[in-house]
Specification:
By secondary structure, the chain is α/β, with parallel strands linked by helices. Helices cover 44% and strands 21% of the residues.
Amino acid sequence: TQRSCAHGELHYRSKARVAQKRLFKHILEQGMESLSSLARVFRGTIVHTRSKTNLEILCDHVVGIDKSGCISFVKPDGEVQIPQEIPVVDLGKRFLLPGFVDTHAHAPQYVFAGTGMDLELLPWLDTYTFPAEAAFNETEHAVHVYEKSVRGHLRRGTTTVCYFATIHLEASKMLCDLLKMVGMRAFVGKVNMDRNSKDYYVEDTAASLRDTRSFVEHVQQSCGTGRDALVQPIITPRFVPTCTPDLMAGLGEIAQEHGLRIQSHLSENEGECAWVKELHPDVDSYSEVYDRFGLFNDRTIMAHAIYLSDREIDLVHQRGVAIAHCPNSNFSLSSGVLNARRLLDAGVKLGLGSDVAGGYSPSMLDALRFAITASKCIHFNDRDSKPLSYAEALYLATLGGAEALGIADLVGSFEPGKRFD
């Protein structure tokens, strides 16, 4: 009996050693495969956020990037033997951040950023925005401006942007083609507006919907339809005052049909809010207008949202709508100050937007600083409202923006498998 037990134990140990060798071999092969696909390595200090309260600073680390542009590993320096032929970028005293995510910008407005800051929103649109955007019916002009706009964002470290274009189909297509060419991740919307605008810059309802379908088809054929497509179409009613119920209903149908994201403006200015109430007296709130037409769901991102009631915030949270906080623009056009803490405490998804040209700078560092300043302004009048920390502001400019756009599994932080945008 003792001999039988000893034999069984030896057999068990032998099997365990074989399994262990197989495991070690598998791990080694995985590591070798990972290293064989390496394209570049960054060595130095890595800074990112894992959540709005978790800022991570990794000193003396290496980040490996594979040939497909994905993050292969993030490890302490010395834990990985990097092949000699792989280029290594030594950051020295610099540090590496994730690419910024700008959740709200107007690509055609880049050329007049900083103009008309003495006006509030509605007269500013009539005086500067609509005349400037109307010029994009000339495609040569559109390409010239869009090149400046896109490169202006890239130079400032922004690698993902949620763009408004104009009402012009061909110019909007060209913006997408340019973004694909330079390799910038973006959501792009052909703007829709069929009322309450200048006669030289307004659409027919049927034509607006037809052109939107053509735009979606072009972008998806050119850039793909997957979640990780570099450039994606986004349904873009400018805002309720310039969109008839028929147009909003039609856009809601297109978004539902193709599973597309939606962007617009919400409660940016008190005059705008009053105007929406005049146009839709039968609806209790600005938010509920969008909700009525299928434009308020977990694929929606709304810019500003300064004057939301408690009931609207509940609706935003229930529907899974994200908010693009645009503090530079809110100050510059005297629109108001968003209580970002109130939205975060309510569980609302929140990112930052430059809102060029209402915001005079395309820099997300500028948006980050203004967001902290705005939160301090709120704190002056409400001591219970804690100002944003630098960690929270960085989160909003990176991972928070990615979450707001539904791509946090792709970008926003340094995690193996994510894209190294």
